[in-house]
TrEMBL record:
Single GO term (MF): peptide transmembrane transporter activity
Keyword annotations of the record: Signal, Transport
Source organism (scientific name): freshwater metagenome
Xref: PANTHER family: OLIGOPEPTIDE-BINDING PROTEIN APPA, PERIPLASMIC BINDING COMPONENT OF ABC TRANSPORTER
Gene3D superfamilies per record: Dipeptide-binding Protein, Domain 3 (3.10.105.10), Periplasmic binding protein-like II (3.40.190.10)
Full protein name: Unannotated protein
InterPro entries according to UniProt: SBP_5 (IPR039424), SBP_5_dom (IPR000914)
Cited Pfam families: SBP_bac_5 (PF00496)
Lineage, broadest ranks: unclassified sequences, metagenomes, ecological metagenomes
Amino acid sequence: MTRFVKNPNYWNGTVHLDAVEFYPVPDPATMLDLLNNGDLDALHTTDQTTIKDLKSNADVVNMLDDTGEESFQMINSQNPPFDDIRVRQALAFATPKAKQLELIGLGEVRSADQMFTPESPYFNPDVKQDADQPDKALPLVAAYCAEKGTVINPVLNQPTCTNGKVNMEYQFVGPSAVGLRSAEIFEEGWKVAFNVTRDEVNQQDHIQQNALGQSNVLGWRQFGAIDPWADSVWLLCRTVGAISLNWPRYCDPARDTILLDAQNTDDPAKRAEGYKALAQNMHDAYTYIFLNHTLWTNSFAKNVHGTCAIKSPEGVALKCTSNGLTWLDTTWMDQ
């Protein structure tokens, strides 16, 4: 448990709660039971089974948001075999996105084709995520394996192809029953053209290995900043390095120009067109396979109030919740 106590000298008004205690609870079902039994006053989660249960509970106040983060597969474009765009395209075509949304999303999440939600002024309706077309993967993989099948995949330390299929590692965070089930779903789709080695690791190692380029394909969640420029650190050439924040390690000077031009204009229409071009550019690079807009809930017992009362110093109401985060400095509770 981590306990935060209120600051009596807080600059932005009175803080009502004396303290807030945070309890890490890895199992979503246990977390839900703790809330229902009164042992927790609030929780946040992206587990869709838990969200369905919370939505049906009249004694819980739910704040749902899917505009602050995207869920996707991310591909390291520096390591063979995924330094070849044909292999990245093949993985996209073979991805069983519809089944993932059905079995893991449970009808609760919205499908994603890009880093922007349809409500965003930067959403590009022409960008569609390639997936669920395994027949298109086969000729791409066949051509690659015929040319480069003996090149070594440095992550697996073995040739990039065996028996006409591409050898790859898929890394995801665990231990997680949902993560493992998702890995099984993806492997079932990918096996038409890929030999998949799973690597379930804790989140610290997941991030570290990705930053160091020690990966092929990863399950990942990111993006969703209110100002897209805040997400540019993940996309620019200058953030590719030995330790890389451009996680896919993909450098495209044309993308840099798109990002910088969009940031530097004060014309909202030009900025919107720039970010729409960015969505197309990201699609065409095939380093991300977008799955869904990540649905978070911040859920509170009925005696918790004020989480949406936050305002800026100018008195403007601020967004209640984003990416699982919410405000606590205006929160108060019934006795």
